[in-house]
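Feature request, filed as a ticket because there's no other form

It would be nice if the structure record came with a short human-readable summary line next to the tokens. Right now we just get the raw output. Example of a typical job, pasted below so the devs can see what we mean:
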Amino acid sequence: MVKISMLIAIRPATLNEISAILRIEQQSRTASHWTIDQYTDLIANGIVLIAEQAEVICGFISAQAVAGEWEIENVVVAPEFLRQGIATRLVNEVIKRARRENASVIRLEVRESNQAARSLYEELHFRQEGRRFAYYSNPPEDALVYAMRL
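Raw output as currently delivered:
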């Protein structure tokens, strides 16, 4: 595990960073796995923020905003940077931006078995509001739907 200081910058991703985002995403079995084109579209039309220290991308979060409702699509931290508060910082930045945009709610889906992510969201005051049966594949699993009312 790489120890990091609090000198983590959270900033919007650029198109040049898609390959780094994909490398991090592909190391996570619980991440949603997307194509280059999907990330290109999300950077252009949605929200993709990266956590960076000393020019090393440690993790990222992607979200979309439609009609005052935000949805977190992916939160991924590189394995060597896990358990250091990076995911919390990324989610908090999305919450801050959603509030600034006067969003009414932020939603997300998470694998039922992903206890670490569920604990994070619950600590940040997201509440489970539903279930999507057999939502995920490889392996098949239900998604739990969480929401934070703003």
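Something like this underneath would help us a lot:
Residues 9-149 form a domain with the Aminopeptidase fold (CATH 3.40.630.30).
The chain has a mean pLDDT of 93.
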